[in-house]
Amino acid sequence: MGAQDGGCILVTGGAGFIGTHTVLQLLKEGFKVVIIDNLDNSVEEGVERVKDLAGPELAGNLTFILGDLRNKEDLENVFNGRRFDAVIHFAGLKAVAESVAKPFLYYHNNIVGTLNLFEFMEKYGCKKMVFSSSSTVYGQPEKIPCVEDFHLTALNPYGRTKLFVEDIARDIQKADPEWKMIFLRYFNPVGAHESGRIGEDPKGIPNNLMPYIQQVAVGRLPELNVYGVDYPTQDGSAIRDYIHVMDLADGHICALQRLLTPEFNGCTAYNLGTGCGTSVLEMVAAFEKASGKKIPVKLCPRRPGDATAVYASTDKALRELGWKAKYGLAEMCRDQWNWARNNPFGYHTHP
């Protein structure tokens, strides 16, 4: 279903890193899109650039609304007078360390906001959601790769908010089978759109590896802190599954198309990753190669709540969604560097 059928998707947190890339793909697939975002960790400039990349014909299908899911008046303003075919729910705080320091903020933002969203979806008869979950729901997995039916246990408040929302969604769906929901458990999104016009622009010191490497490469930070070099891995650094943000965006399109088919029912989860583990130090080396820049590294103790190695089994997404990651490490680093080089201060012209 595309815009020619009046397909309209509400994207919460659509001005953020994964949101902007997914919204661009939605527009190209012919959907109309309404974004609600409180700009806590994003800027409206990202949305403007999505419109530019989509071109004048498709830009008119995108509406941006400044609003917060914790505020019911904002939600009323979004839902009243509009009909949505589905919701893609990105909005949420996402830093593990911050969640350990500020659990109240995370529970309030990620859970109360989502409960409000469910309430308005129910009220206005839109019972289809693609939810932005996370590989953190696997905690410290007993074996890898992580398979969707593993026992779930989160090691930190951020991960628990994702797990709780999945549980809440399952309970809602059990009580009312009209609800249809897909949880996408992302591994580690990196890279940027090939144009270098949109990418990740975290506020403050970055919490994730790639934006941190990027800020060192452009001279905004003096060195990269590598947390933990005594893990039982090949080079002592932790292993993660890094996925190109454009692969992730395409994964949302595949999930949405499945959600909108008449035969889809219930709640189900899919991993979105490459299925390959890359160590932190391997990623640093790959970025150095792509950028031609030396990245000074400072070795630091492990962070509480960090797992040794986590990567995805992607068989289910391939089997049921027809989705598979296309981009490798070299492309991730190339596109990340292209974005960084063109936008050393993110969406701002200066610090």
Descriptive keywords:
alpha/beta, 351 residues, seven-stranded parallel sheet, two-stranded parallel ribbon
Give the overall shape.
globular
| End-to-end C-alpha gap | 42 Å
- Overall helicity: 25-40%
* Major sheet description: 7 strands, parallel
Query: Count of DSSP helices?
Result: 12
Structural class determined from secondary elements: alpha/beta
Low-confidence stretches: none
- Mean of residue pLDDT values: 96
Order of helices and strands: EHEHHEHEHHEHEEHEEEHEEHEHH
Q: β content, as a range?
A: 15-25%
Widest β-sheet, arrangement of strands: 3-2-1-4-5-6-11
**Rg over C-alpha atoms, rounded to the nearest angstrom:** 19 Å
Q: What is the tally of beta strands?
A: 13
Task: Describe this structure as you would to a colleague.
The protein has 351 residues and is an alpha/beta fold. It contains twelve helices and 13 strands. The protein has helices at 17-28, 44-54, 56-59, 72-79, 96-101, 103-123, 157-175, 209-217, 245-259, 280-291, 315-321, 329-342, and strands at residues 8-12, 32-37, 62-66, 86-89, 128-134, 180-186, 188-190, 224-227, 239-240, 242-244, 266-272, 278-279, 297-300. The strands form four sheets. Strands 3-2-1-4-5-6-11 form a seven-stranded parallel β-sheet, with helices on both faces. Helix 7 (157-175) links the parallel strand 5 and strand 6 (180-186). Helix 1 crosses helix 9 (245-259) and helix 6 (103-123) packs parallel to helix 7. It starts with 7 loop residues before the first strand and ends in a 9-residue tail after the last helix. The model has no long low-confidence stretch (mean pLDDT 96).
